[in-house]
Amino acid sequence: MWMPTLNRFKIYLISLIGCLPLVSLTAGTVVWPTPSTAFEEGLPYTDFVQATASGNPESALFGCVRNDGRRFHEGLDIRPILPRQRGEATDPIYAVADATVAHINSVAGNSSYGRYIVLVHDHLEPAFYTLYAHLRSIDSDVEVGQRVDQGQVIGVMGRSAGGYTIPQSRAHLHFETGLRLSDSFQNWYDQQQFGSDNHHGVYNGMNLVAWDPLDFYEWKRDFPGGTVKEYLDGLIVGAVIQVRSSRVPDFVRRYPALLTRPIPQDGVIGWQIEFSPWGLPMRWTPLNKQHPLSARAEGEVIVTGIHPSALQAYGCRQIISMNGERAGLGNGSQRIIRILFDFN
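Now predict its structure.
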């Protein structure tokens, strides 16, 4: 008997919910964000990613994979697998774990992400975010501040974007996992004089720093009992930077699991931060008043260690700038430090 396309889609969706690929977390599980089972089946990434116009599958991955290595891609682009509706993707998008809805952008033209949702998985340490972008639609039952369950449908895959067009043939989910830099992001944004409003508050993409979602899922498959903190601890350090500041950034208060030791009761004079090669501030050591950094001026920043080959692999992020053998902050790390510490 004939049924409208939408009804067929709903019936197919129900049949898929029970077989979502699961990757274990100590506090539960994390599901793949789309109906594709290619990852669970151990197939190569070429079987589930959506390449850019270049046709190169690597362009869908995390890292300096765009514009001949000059442009950074913050997430993983996952292609649709379900039958299309008038040429448009119909794949449902799932919350990968229990979460709070932190941000919804329902106006496609307001962001290069198009329509997107940010969830915060606040039952885990650190409470990382996941971001789901280029959505065709957002579920009408999903609202900022509400709780969503793991595997709950939060939207439909699409090709929405602001400032450019994604063709039907390249509809996909842009999926990110990461941390938020600062509650004071708007101060930094206002100083840049971009000429446009910040429609996304602290969940503007420039205030988010991700890690490789595919690498994270692969690690969870290999270490099913591992925690998010343990995953971050295993990431390679690209640079060690010391910041002379007596402030405790809200980043540290939001992610206390990233502290290597407690904050001294009599305060701090600065911080030693271990950054990934692409700029994720993943380990923080508070420095006491006896530390040599106390002789430096407030706001001074120095580079105390680098991993040259790791930084080279993510050179498009400009984390470190070399002047002969002397290492200094690159444009990328300068921006991150200014946002983190609300420096002018």
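Confidence is low (pLDDT under 50) at residues 1-18.
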